[in-house]
UniProtKB/TrEMBL annotation:
Keywords: Membrane, Transmembrane, Transmembrane helix. The chain crosses the membrane at residues 39-60, 66-88. It comes from freshwater metagenome. InterPro entries: DUF1003. This is Unannotated protein.
């Protein structure tokens, strides 16, 4: 009690019993199921069965008469749980997208730097090739020399 300060809120340390990653995975599975045609089909069957049972069944089997207040409560409860689960799944997807975009941006920056480097290297090679004799240039020079030698041989022979 002597270490307790009155100007700061009391803190209680609870053990970390829940794994946020596991909760996120479960919420994504539920959100994926809620967004499927299979869920819509099941909900249609359940609601149709519920309404049919409460309209057609004998009076002693009916548990939710015509305004179907209990059905409304059940559907509202399902929606109140579904909405946060879907939002949680969307937040996790947004986090994954953010990481993917950052990795793509870094990859694109590396590619851009590599292409700039290669462009500079090619430019340097082109500049250096301006001073180097190419194969075509050497062949042309050799042909000219050969032609001159043939002319000199013709002149010396005549």
């Amino acid at each position: 009690m002597a270490n307790r300060r009155l100007d700061q809120p009391a803190t209680k340390s609870f053990p970390q019993a829940r794994d946020p990653e596991r909760i996120g995975q479960v919420s994504e599975r539920i959100a994926r199921f809620i967004g499927s045609w299979r869920f819509i089909a099941w909900m249609t069957v359940v609601v149709t069965g519920w309404v049919s049972l409460n309209i057609v069944a004998p009076q002693y089997l009916r548990y939710d008469e015509y305004p179907f207040i209990f059905l409304t409560l059940v559907l509202s409860l399902q929606a109140s749980y579904a909405a946060p689960l879907i939002l949680l799944a969307q937040n996790r997807q947004a986090d994954r997208d953010r990481v993917t975009y950052a990795e793509d941006r870094a990859h694109n920056e590396r590619l851009h730097a590599s292409s700039e480097y290669l462009a500079r290297e090619i430019s340097a090679i082109r500049a250096a090739l301006g001073d180097v004799a190419t194969r075509d240039y050497l062949r042309a020079e050799i042909r000219e020399l050969l032609a001159e030698i043939k002319e000199q041989d013709k002149g010396a022979a005549s």
